[in-house]
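Hi R.,

As promised, here are both runs. First protein below:
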Amino acid sequence: YMKFSDYTYIRLDYTAIKAQFSDLTEQLAQASDLETTRTLVIATTKLLNLIDTHYNLWMIRHTIDMNDEFYNEETKFWNEYYPLFEELTTNYYRVIVQTPYKVELADILPETFFMQAENKLKTFSSDVIPLFQKENELTDEYNKLIAGAEIDFQGQTYNLAQMGPFGQSTDRDVRKAASAATTAFFESKEADFDRVYDELVKVRTEIAHKLGFKDYVEYGYLKMNRFDYNRDMVKVYREEILKHIVPIVQDLRQRQANRLQVPSLKHYDLNLEFLDGNAVPQGDPDFIVSQAQDMYRELSAETGEFFDFMIEHELLDLNAKPGKNSGGYCTYIPDYKSPFIFSNFNGTSGDIDVLTHEAGHAFQVYRSRWIQSPEVVWPTYETCEIHSMSMEFMTWPWMDRFFKEQVDKYKFTHLASALLFLPYGVLVDHFQHEVYEHPEMTPAERKATWKKLQDLYLPDRDYSESEALNRGIFWYRQGHIFASPFYYIDYTLAQVCALQFWKRTQVDHDENAWEDYIRICDLGGTKSFLQVVEAANLQSPFKEGALESTAKAAADWLDAVKDTDL
């Protein structure tokens, strides 16, 4: 029972790995029988897992403490060498996609592996390595800006995650002051955020042009391995959100204003759901983890085994602390066959959301450990988010453990927030399309674009009391825009799928829903997004009427709740 702290990180010797990798790739190009090919593929896969393991150990420890000098030095190594490791991988792909043994190798390299490899060949070239290195440096610069936030508030200093609870204060003056303090941080670094993003847009556009793409959007869709849909389908989907979801959100916001007894919601009111306070976990982080362990043991034998593994190996780093990067994520360390969950608990209901969400990712990858190839242990992003968002709803029957008498409040907020999120998620995506379709935009024009789209998708946002937010700087705090371009529509597509799981488990009491969920966790990345949706017996979010009927079921449930009594 090795603990995470015992997992050994070493800086890889690039020269030695390059020699080994190149030798295997050369032999593979000469291989004339299945047995030799298989042996070489297994050896190459081991090397890929080795690189992935140490990359992830560095990344986890760096994000846990961005002031750690050892891992800060390692950051320079990975920013420089990760694209060089990618070059070795791409050379391997160039050879393996030519193999006549694709069918015979399907147990190690499923069809999706070859689809991803083909995309990689189109989106990577040794000529653009310096640009990838620059992109990595800029992304790290953004992360450091965020992690370094020190906000003086009520006589104390807080980071961004720790400011979260003040935004949910029942005292309107506190909410307003907290929002102003947080916004002031972003405004004080406005020139830095603008410069970093401006450089990122230029670097990414140059990458796309050098590789022969019209723009970074076209490049981005391939890089994200979007096998089942294109930008035109996404455009239609965004229009569907405008038509079917925005009116529901307007109604939910009006109900919220009524509950808070304010004539209209201001931007600093949005995070408070109830006049006497939001539902909050009824215990500290240790209490949350012990309840989660009981919950996962009761949910199923499979989830019990998985969560026990996470605790025994200390694969959770959950609490907000100074110098820690923001947000939450789950990653996977191949050589230890270990998922890892990172988050920033701050005493709000979001602590439970992030734990069940990231546990959904971790459970999927735990169930997919049979897959040898690191490229396809995970599915593509929009598929990954089905596992995480659905797990949030699968655990509803146990939410009273965490929230006790506030459980009905929590469920109302949780389901409502799933709908409230959709227009915002689509806004983030639409904004990025505009930015990368018009890379010549100035920082001021980008902010104006955000504001225009914000008014379209989020007409409920009243920023009249904040000049900076009214000008359009809210997006600085959305890390995906900087670090993971185009990774955001994925959450909304998955949310539409997760809401179907919610309906099947909570409304229809469909006994097959859990089996379907486990089935798609077991598939890992061996199937594409729409193949996984089909395997789960769900409707594609792109299918006409799917979005509408799913949203209607959730809206009807919320309408039936007398929220003023909660």
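And here is the second one, sequence first, then its structure tokens:
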Amino acid sequence: MRRVVLLGLAWVGLAQAQAPLELPEVRVQSGLIEQRQFDAPASVQRVDGERIRASGPQVNLSDVLTAVPGVVALNRNNYAQDVQISIRGFGARAAFGLRGIRLLVDGIPATTPDGQGQASTVSLTSVDRIEVLTGPLAQIYGNAAGGVIQAYTREASAQPEAQTQLYVGSYGLRRSDWQLSGRSGQVGMVADFSTLDTQGYRAQSAARRQQLNSVLTLDSSADTRHKWVVNLFEMPLAQDPLGLTSSNLGTPWAAGANAQSANTRKMVHQEQVGWVMQHRLERDLQLQTRLYRGDRSNLQYLSSQNWVGLERQYWGWGAQMQGQRDGHIPIQWTVGLEGDQSGEVRQGGAAPAGQKSGLPNRNEWNQANTLDGFAQINWLVSERFTWVTGLRRSSVVLRSNDQCLVSPPCSYADDGSGRVRYQSSNPVLGLTWHWHPQWNAYANTGRGFETPTLAEAAYVKSGNDLLGRFNPRLLAATSVHRELGLKFANEAGSRMSLAWFGIETQNEIVSDKVVNGQVAYTNATRTQRQGLEFNAQHRLGQHWRAEASVTAMRAVYSQTFSTVANGNRLPATPDRWGFAALHWSQMPATAQTRPSGWLASVEWLGRSGMWANDLNTATAAAPGYGGVNLRLRHRHVWASGQIEPYLAIENLHNKTTVGSVIVNQSNGGFFEPGLPRTWTLGLQAKWAL
């Protein structure tokens, strides 16, 4: 951790000597209230659309979060299980999708009430920016808010325009995107349709998917804006290559045990619509409301020669008042209420050779409900100090109604039905010290909680077997978060943030038994996370720009439970990871325009080793790595549009890596290999209509 501090001090010496370059003010969601990123008493990072577009095909959320400190973004290269993203260790244990992280798109939750989310449903090709909030202030978002990721679709262009992006790459990658945007009077529209087709690097890893993301805005008056969001996601095929054992890492292109014989794969279909209204009641008083509804169908074939199907319906609502008061002590405040519900039919049965056979042997109705109230106040108590206080009261109910399709029939008392309620009040408190125009220091603390998801409560362990029964005995994990931070910003465009954090958790929810892709969970006793995060951007003249982020974290079980010893590392959480990049543009960059001509970047990213199980056994040790990526673009701009060819070479040194791990896999198939050296060719174009 000492190296992180020394890196920050060395960077400050460079930044203070830089010539001025006026940059626009960056505003972010600091908790539930928008304010300047520099003034926020929290670690909050913003990834803008330019970086997202420069990342390449814009398929995986992990590709655009590599520079965010505190975030471990691992690409499984397995579209059947989605990317693996954790924030300060929260979400690392997820066997698929996101877990322990709140994900919102255009103000609408993409995380279900029990804390599950799917990063693949974020349409990166039409995203304008992504904000990542970590630390205590994230707890005001409620259940499973180890961190918050918010994505915002771009605003409609003033004049009608069309955009397209086409990519081809290694292992049969084909990616296309078509987008229309424009305004007519008070109506704005963005419609984006994208496709993906890949054969995959590993055996049994091909995938196809397509997505439509459309946003329609109506400014019905000077004080009122309506936004309608429609998102359709179709993945008719995503083969699952499973994990490899440590002895099989010598053939990283191979599929795991039984993947091909069982034809392991997943099919997904999702439809979602939402409405958000913002209305200014008075000059300093605003009301925001939201409604949304969606359906998701998920069918998965497992290596156990079984299938699992989910038919989910989800919906929710929210209302939030926000205001401010000027005077001797200016105040910003917000208060709101929101409710969400997710219900799903869970079925399962036999699938020899990857084909359904016979009648289902599992049929349940699972449901999760939340009802939350929240409030936050920002007090500018003087020119030097700002207080932030907040509170969220959450109630989460999980229930399962089991049809008990077993022989002989069972009674209600011993079937898989059940119900459990979790309640929690989570306060947050923060202070910013504005001690210099270019420097801010802050401190904050907060309490959070995390309930089991419906998927985590779907199985119970019975000896060496798993039973498909609802598990109401799982407790909600509770955590106490503390953070100290320092921020620097100058007119030359240099930025720096340094944060220390400490997190203590009781009843951490961990995987207890994994059998052929099915997981039973239990509660650990105590865990502890401590770390340092450093992030910086600096302009080296008009043509060069550098950036870096480094995170050092120690995440351990701080009390023995079961056969896991005190001091064991939490799985899927490296001790160190980082990112560094040097960017060059042929033409000078300004705050108002993006440079044309040649643009080039060289990136380094790496992480230390990590464990794949709680026992930290030698066969579950994933080695660390460091790799270099090269990106080259040429942007040609003319009066009615622009065109931009793109070339990327990733993992330039062709290193063999472990991309991610499957936590506590019972047969030792922990490891999902990273890609070898790959290439991508692309073309982005935009023109006025």
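A quick note on the second one: The chain is about 5% helix and 60% strand. Let me know what you think.

Best,
J.
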